[in-house]
Amino acid sequence: MKRQTLLIASLVALGCPSDDTAGTADTTDGSTTDAGSTTNEDSTTGNVETTEDSTSIGSVDSSSGSTTDDEECDGEQLVCDGDCIDPLTDAEFCGASGDCEGDNAGTACERGAECIDGDCVDGAQGWGTEEIIDAGGSSFYPRIAMNALGQAIVVFEEEGPPVSNGLANRFDPDASSWSGAEPFELDDMGDVSDPEVAIDPAGNAVAVWARNDGPNPSQARAARWDEAMQTWSDAAQLAAHTSELDTGVLIDADGNATAVYRQQGGATSTAFARRFEAGGKGWDAPTDLGSIFPADLPQLAVDPDGNVTTAWTRIAGGPTLATRRWDAATSSWADEALMDMAASADARTARLTADAQGNVFAVWQSFGDDHIMANRWDADDESWGTSEIISDPTQTIAAFPEVATDAAGNAIAVWHHRESSNKDPAHVYASRWDAGSETWSAAEPVDGEEVATAAPDVAMDPAGNALVVWIARDAAGALNVGGARWDSATGAWDDPETIEDTPGDVYVNTELDPGPQVAMDDAGRGLVVWSQDVDGTLRVLANRYE
Asked: In the chain, how many H helices and how many E strands?
């Protein structure tokens, strides 16, 4: 099982990426690769390609960037712990004076409080205190979904014995509390893996996952949370036993769900979709979307009218980004459409989002040159535009993009990149789509570039504010969750910050657990979830942005 290599993969991916003498990690076929590499097999040729591991963070030099006591600070600033700070606004040295030592060091404000005129003020906008939300066992791979009201649900895996369970925990924004973790797979007959979840405006949710029944290969399953009845349904089987399988899901405003999965049969990998009708019709028959890259999973986006777009890396004829659309008016799938061939050749890790006007944004990694690409489906023209590079074309090894939109049709894409090699520290960058000018901004760092960061995620509220979260390796080598907020009123990024202080390394591995996940509601409140080593056990934690 993949659980057996969980901690090893964690160390390989993030612990020692810059050392050429690092050990090896088990791959899924039993072979080994260098810790700084990823092996991919092209099913069309049988060739195996080894590429640098863009998931590892690297390290930073902590010897620069500080101010000495001999240097002068501007205006009323003081030197505190080697840096110039404003004691009227600095939350770490709020109200400091003189030499900023001992009684003169001021007060370190609690998380969620703000330093205003030298005093810590509670209830200010910001992140709260993280909390463990699992059931007590070794837990990982959390996934979050949140609706406009702030109702949220998190699903994750809990390692057995006797089997690995799928658990869910729901957040009530009115009570500001969690319901408690409970199983969404009720029969305990097989290992649950890779759960995904979506939630509708009424608080109903659908979870999908892969289940392994021991000697049998995986099967895709789904269950529905009924908010009115406060119960999970019995699991429905979406796909028969296959040798390899991944799943994804979303829900439209009317509660209809679309589930996608990748099914492996021999040397062929195929993408499928199934629809759940909220009116009591249940799940429809599978739709064959087309051939898919063996390591890929179809991505989904839904607009306010219930139209669904899915995209995946198509293998037939060479790796190219393919899309299909579900038309809510005709209740049918359109034919497959290929993104412009040259720009989407060798596309990987595509991500989608739809805005309030029905336009769809797609971002992906161009695997050949490691740039981040973007394209936009125009709802008026009913066609894709021209793909373009949105990462800095002079930089290489850009990977793992994510994208989100606001009510006005603006979008923010984030990713991480290295300067030139796998040994360089990774940093999180962003580019913004302006709906008025219909252009992407120049890529800019959002992590402050003082620590190495990777594996970002992004969410936006209708007003255009955004939260970006990531994994950060600090100067001491510890792995933390960091983040930054885009303020739509000022048109600027807030300073990056660490948003948890639980002892122990945050866990990330793009195959088993791709890092922190974030969501926002219509009021601009956010929730982030992640897995972390707490006293030697992987736990699922959450923090709220108010």
From this structure: 2, 47
Q: Which helix (H) or strand (E) holds 452?
A: strand 452-460
- The string of pLDDT tens digits covering residues 343-377 is 666 788 899 999 999 999 999 998 777 899 999 99
Are 426 and 18 in contact, with CB atoms under 8 Å apart?
A: no
Three-state SS at 105:
helix
Residue 102 DSSP SS3 = helix
Q: What's the distance, CA 138 to chain centroid?
A: 21
% the chain with pLDDT above 70: 81
Average of pLDDT values for 475-482?
Answer: 92
* DSSP states along 201-215: TTS-EEEEEEEE-TT
Alpha-helix runs per DSSP H in 252-340: none
For 309-335, what is each residue's pLDDT tens digit? 999 988 766 678 889 999 999 999 999
**Single pTM value for the model:** 0.80
d(CA 524, CA 150): 9
Q: Is the pLDDT of residue 66 over 50?
A: no
What Å distances lie between residue 177 and 72, 171, 181, 307, 338, CA to CA?
Answer: 47, 6, 12, 33, 45
Q: Give the pair of three-digit tokens for residue 126.
A: 């910001």
Distance CA 318, CA 267 (A): 15
User: Which residues lie below 8 Å from residue 442, measured CB to CB, with a gap of 6+?
Assistant: 392, 431
